């Protein structure tokens, strides 16, 4: 599995490139992880509902995309890892892929002493923190905050889109949406959780490597 670091990349151009890569794949095309960062943008999944955008005081662009899930925010200080994977060759399905991504993110966080987990009812990675105790989100999120969101598209048996991990970013734009469709869901980042200023490039590479290991693991046991 090849890791490609793209730096700051335009969202639309990256999405177009993912689709083109997927359409051009052959049976022997290596899987890839694309690591990048985007300028501020809200993205809506295929089932996204307009009411989850509560306002847009900063005039951030909204892109209707073809991934699963509802609305989320991407911006500077958030690392994106796009998962370009041949599921047929990998030998597992979408549910197992989601769990492998969540466990890869959780493994990275464990290295910082942070206990993290995925949720079968709401894909993504969550952490526990006292500041999240007042969350009013539906779905039993009290005491939890989301640190990574996840959305995928499967096309011809291959995936694209992936995971957005909050490293050290301005979290204010999340206040203008119901993150991933959940009103009041608290959102956090690695900087807040550790009280430090993480090295963005180092964290991004470490995340890609953690995902590379999780996606390739032969002894993976599903939840």
Defining traits:
three-stranded mixed sheet, BirA Bifunctional Protein, domain 2, globular, 223 residues, 5 helices, alpha+beta, seven-stranded mixed sheet
CATH homology-level superfamily: Bira Bifunctional Protein, Domain 2
CATH C-level label: Alpha Beta
In terms of structural class, how would the helical and strand content be classed? alpha+beta
Q: Give the biggest sheet.
A: 7 strands, mixed
What percentage of residues falls in helices of 4 or more residues? 25-40%
- Count of separate DSSP helical elements: 5
Instruction: Write down the secondary-structure element order.
Output: EHEEEEEHHEEEEHH
Tell me the number of strands: 10
Radius of gyration: 16 Å
Distance between the termini: 24 Å
> Strand order, biggest sheet?
1-2-6-10-9-8-7
Strand content: 25-35%
Low-confidence stretches: none
Q: Which CATH architecture?
A: 2-Layer Sandwich
What sort of overall outline do the alpha carbons produce when their principal axes are compared? globular
Give the total of domains.
1
Topology, element by element:
Layout lengths: L1 E7 L2 H14 L7 E6 L3 E4 L16 E4 L6 E4 L3 E7 L2 H4 L3 H17 L5 E3 L6 E4 L15 E12 L2 E9 L23 H5 L5 H17 L7
Helix pairs in contact: 3-5
Task: Please characterize this protein's 3D structure.
The protein has 223 residues and is of the alpha+beta class. The protein has one domain (2-216): Bira Bifunctional Protein, Domain 2 (BirA Bifunctional Protein, domain 2), CATH 3.30.930. Helices cover 26% and strands 27% of the residues. The chain has helices at 11-24, 87-90, 94-110, 190-194, 200-216, and strands at residues 2-8, 32-37, 41-44, 61-64, 71-74, 78-84, 116-118, 125-128, 144-155, 158-166. The strands form 2 sheets. A 7-stranded mixed sheet has the order 1-2-6-10-9-8-7. A 3-stranded mixed sheet has the order 4-3-5, with no helix packed on it. α3 crosses α5 (200-216). The radius of gyration is 16 Å and the shape is globular. The chain starts with a strand and ends in a 7-residue tail after the last helix.
């Amino acid at each position: 599995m090849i890791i490609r670091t793209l730096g700051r990349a335009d969202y639309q151009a990256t999405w177009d490139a993912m689709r083109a890569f997927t359409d051009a794949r052959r049976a022997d095309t290596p899987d890839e992880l694309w690591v990048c960062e985007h300028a501020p943008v809200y993205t809506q999944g295929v089932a996204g509902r307009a009411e989850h955008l509560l306002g847009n005081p900063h005039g951030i662009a909204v892109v209707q995309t073809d991934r699963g899930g509802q609305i989320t925010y991407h911006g500077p200080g958030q690392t994106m890892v796009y998962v370009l994977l041949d599921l047929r060759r990998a030998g597992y399905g979408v549910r197992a892929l989601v769990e492998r991504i969540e466990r890869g993110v959780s493994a990275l966080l464990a290295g910082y002493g942070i206990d993290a987990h995925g949720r079968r009812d709401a894909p993504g990675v969550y952490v526990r923190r006292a500041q999240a105790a007042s969350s009013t989100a539906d779905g039993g999120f009290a005491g939890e905050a989301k640190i990574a969101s996840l959305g995928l598209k499967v096309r011809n048996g291959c995936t694209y889109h992936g995971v957005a991990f909050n490293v050290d970013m301005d979290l204010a734009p999340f206040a203008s949406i119901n993150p991933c469709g959940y009103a009041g869901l608290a959102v956090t980042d690695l900087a807040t959780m550790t009280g430090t200023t993480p090295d963005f490039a180092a964290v991004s590479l470490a995340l890609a490597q953690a995902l590379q290991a999780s996606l390739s693991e032969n002894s993976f046991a599903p939840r």
